[in-house]
Write a structure and sequence with these properties.
Keywords: FAD, Flavoprotein, Oxidoreductase. The structure is a single chain. The protein is α+β, with helices and mostly antiparallel strands. It folds into three domains: 4-115, Acyl-CoA dehydrogenase/oxidase, N-terminal domain (Butyryl-Coa Dehydrogenase, subunit A, domain 1), CATH 1.10.540; 121-231, Butyryl-CoA Dehydrogenase, subunit A, domain 2, CATH 2.40.110; 235-380, Butyryl-CoA Dehydrogenase, subunit A, domain 3 (Up-down Bundle). The chain is built from twelve helices and twelve strands. It has helices spanning 4-21, 25-31, 36-45, 64-74, 80-92, 95-100, 103-115, 234-270, 282-310, 316-340, 351-358, 369-380, and strands at 120-123, 139-143, 146-157, 164-170, 180-186, 188-189, 192-193, 197-201, 212-223, 227-228, 272-273, 276-277. The strands form four sheets. A four-stranded mixed sheet has the order 1-4-5-10. A hairpin with a 2-residue loop joins strand 11 and strand 12. Helix 1 runs parallel beside helix 4 (64-74). The chain starts with a helix and ends in a 7-residue tail after the last helix. The mean pLDDT is 96.
Length: 387
């Protein structure tokens, strides 16, 4: 799928990562946060935050295959948290706004986000409604020309630094699939949290350099004109947005897993045990070949899904398969490779143990493996009848 133009984009991203990200990763990991505004402004100035977004709002206007190429490139970042934070900006919190938002709304929120002037977060998950999006409890009640928002969101990537949130909230009615709306919610005024908004930072097993927050809303007002598209269509918009999020997550892992395999090959080639390199043991080099084959099969599945998406088809089934397979491979590859690093693999400050911690998230975030299996079964027509 990749042409010389795609490769040129990836080369530019690789140079940016080497210059602006890699030298700081250990510092950001230790601090459990990275300077999102500073980094995103640099990414925006380079054009990387709007690869497939409309030109009139600052994007490159390229087709979706270039966004896939970009996702592959940022998968090489040696900290999963930084790559995930960038993906929130590009593939998780802005696709629905780009597709369904009014020109006024896209001018106000999408354009500065593509430029890197704004940091965005996605407000969907709650402590009682992660993968079960239909069960979320946060409300946005009409009051004059405003919505008044009450509730809380959980596991919000970029939360402690974000300028605005792509919020999903209940706006009325009993049908859980038609009572939700998507709202662009400003989180800060003059650099400080708006009245009625509080948040707590969450510590995580991995993805350390990405800040994650629990966010609370107490009578927070936002104009109704900040709603994306039609009222009551938010669940539908989010389900469509999820597909790009899930394929982005799988795509980034292809590069990350390839790097883990390559680094393990290099380590086991140099590490001598019982008079020969560990890599010379057939069980080791055969295992590397098996894992690389699995990763390349995942890449092919991703490219198929992306092509369907570019052809205006429904990539839901293939995107769900790709995310499911990526999650399974993240556990299999990192665990197998860590084993061959021996005692060094169980130390904290090396690339394979960081990947082991960071990459575990994809089987949980953005829809757990079990949700992906349910979606796939639904497309296969094999779900049992309800009642």
């Amino acid at each position: 799928m990749l042409t010389p133009d795609h490769i040129a984009l990836q080369d530019s991203v690789a140079k940016f990562i080497a210059r602006e990200i890699t030298p700081h990763i250990d510092e950001w990991e230790a601090a459990e946060i990275f300077p999102a505004h500073d980094l995103f402004k640099k990414l925006g100035s380079a054009g990387f935050l709007g690869v497939n977004k409309p030109v009139e709002f600052g994007g490159m206007g390229l087709d979706y295959s270039y966004e896939i190429a970009f996702c592959e490139a940022i998968g090489a970042i040696g900290s999963g948290g930084v790559g995930m934070a960038i993906a929130v900006q590009c593939d998780m919190a802005t696709p629905a706004l780009a597709r369904f938002g009014s020109d006024e709304l896209r001018e106000q929120f999408l354009k500065p986000t593509i430029a890197g002037d704004y940091v965005v977060c996605l407000g969907v998950s709650e402590s009682g409604a992660g993968s079960d999006v239909a069960s979320l409890k946060t409300t946005a009640r009409r009051d004059g020309d405003d919505y008044v928002i009450n509730g809380a969101k959980m596991w919000i990537t970029n939360g402690t630094q974000a300028d605005w949130m792509c919020l999903l909230a209940n706006t009325g009615g009993d049908d859980v699939h038609r009572n939700k709306s998507m709202i662009c919610l400003p989180l800060r005024e003059n650099g400080k949290l708006r009245a009625g908004i509080t948040m707590n930072k969450i510590r995580k097993v991995g993805m350390w350099s990405s800040d994650t927050a629990q966010v609370f809303f107490d009578d927070v007002r936002v104009p109704q004109r900040y709603r994306v598209g039609e009222e009551g269509k938010g669940f539908t918009y989010q389900m469509k947005q999820f597909q790009e999020e899930r394929l982005s997550g799988a795509t980034r892992r292809v590069t990350a897993l390839t790097n883990v395999i390559n680094e393990t090959i290099e380590y086991t080639r140099q590490r001598i045990a019982f008079g020969k390199p560990i890599l010379d043991n057939q069980v080791v080099h055969f295992r590397m070949a098996e894992l690389k084959t699995e990763v390349e099969m995942l890449r092919s599945l991703i490219y198929r899904a992306a092509q369907i998406h570019m052809d205006d088809g429904d990539m839901t089934e293939l995107a769900s398969m790709a995310k499911l397979k990526a999650g399974r491979l993240c556990r299999e590859v990192t665990d197998s490779c860590l084993q061959y690093w021996g005692g060094m693999g169980f130390t904290w400050d090396n690339s394979v143990s960081r990947a082991w911690r960071d990459l575990r998230l994809i089987s949980i975030g953005g829809g757990a493996d079990e949700i992906m299996l349910t979606i796939i079964c639904k497309h296969m027509g094999i779900l049992p009848k309800r009642g």
